[in-house]
Amino acid sequence: MDAPLIALVAGEASGDILGAGLIEALRARYPDARFFGVGGERMIAAGFETLFPMEKLSVMGITEVLSHLPELFRLRRQLVDALLEKRPAVVITIDSPDFTLGVAKRAHAAGLRTVHYVSPSVWAWRQGRVKGIRRDVDLMLTLFPFEALFYEEHGVPVAFVGHPLADMIDLDVDTAAARDELSLAGDGQWLAVLPGSRGGEVSQLMPPFLDAMVRLHRDNPALRFVIPAANPARREQIELALGAAPALPVTVVDGHSRTVMAAADVVLMASGTATLEGLLLKKPMVVGYRVGAVTYAIVSRLVKSEFVALPNLLCRKAMVPELIQDQLSGEAAAREVNRWLHEPRRVAALREDFTRVHEALRGGASVKAAAAVAGLLEGQR
To answer: Any transmembrane segments, and where (predicted)?
Structure first.
């Protein structure tokens, strides 16, 4: 199989990062391979042909998704039709399980081999989904070891590959260099504020995060704030919120969220993949999570996991504060940030635990994922 046609489907920025790394690792094995499907800028830069902009799939929350359902169904039909027409050697769906596993189901039913990269949180909620995964997915690639154990117990072919971010991020973080790169003052304390990359996230999280910033500035006028804006729309949303608040020493940066976190002493952030980056950067953090009331009422009844934030899941203990739904307020967020700023021993212990997790997740995730896919393609599994 010298020049396989390989389909990949990613639905958000984190999947775009994983997809780009996997494309590069697969091309090292198959130099003449061709790649198509749905992906973002990084995948396109790696030589990928996307059928439509990946951003069309980025929707947050149950009620938020409902208004976009007709468009999402139309896009899925368009994508599946292309897969059935081109008949790729393998269809690799990446994260975004509510959309991508539906694609995998249809592709697998049509006789195409399927791989899903990044396990949905079936170990935490809606565990019945594993039956559909066992039926529709020929190989599951997991980022974390505890996920692979779950799939082994449920008879799903699985490979633990680690996380590419663990290879991309150095074990030792140069905070001073990150501040220089962003032209931030090298002295004093900085709080990074990450209210999310989606409009829905920012609208839910920016008000309590901003309230926390006002409270923190009142108690510590020397503390400065830096906020990365994921795109121009998010920057406009963030600046509109800041304009309605008292003057604060805030720097808004276009993109560069990882560098922003590296430059900070503490991070106040939305729950999600970015919390893993915070862990790998060894940063104390406070994690906020808030969605629409209907979405939360449904999800909260289904969740079986003790934790939401990845650092807590990976460390198997409450390493960072989680402020969920009604627990999230400016007062609570400010209190938890202040604890990190004033408890250096607690910060040092956190960094030791985070370093151990970082070391466990390193080891060439993209290369391991490509090897597992190649094994499926060549009949070795």
So the answer is: none
CATH class belonging to 5-162+363-377: alpha beta
Intrachain domains 5-162+363-377 and 175-361 with the same fold: yes
Query: Residue 115's beta-bridge partner residues?
Result: 92, 139
- Contact at 8 Å (CB) between 292 and 325? no
Which sign does the torsion angle of CA 74, 75, 77, 82 carry? positive
Residue 138 main-chain phi, psi, to 5 deg = -80, -25
DSSP class per residue in 238-306 = HHHHHHTS----EEEEES-HHHHHHH-SEEEEESSTHHHHHHHTT--EEEEE---HHHHHHHHHHB--S
| Helix, strand, coil tally for the chain in percent (to 5) | 55, 15, 30
Condensed to tens digits (0 to 9), the pLDDT of residues 316-332 reads 889 999 998 789 999 99
155, exposed or middle or buried, with CB in 10 Å at 0-12, 13-18, 19+? exposed
- Residues in contact with 369: Cβ distance below 8 Å, sequence separation at least 6, in sequence order: 21, 22, 25, 117, 141, 159, 161
Q: Looking at the domain that runs over 175-361, which CATH code has it been given?
A: 3.40.50.2000
| Radius of gyration of the chain, Cα coordinates, nearest whole angstrom | 21
Per-residue pLDDT of 32-73, as tens digits, reads: 999 999 999 999 999 999 999 888 886 544 345 556 678 888
C-alpha to C-alpha distance for 6 and 338, rounded to whole angstroms: 49
Q: Rounded to two decimals, what is the model's pTM?
A: 0.74
**H or E segment at 18?**
helix 13-29
Owner of token pair 């974390």: 144
Q: Where are the domains of the chain?
A: 5-162+363-377, 175-361
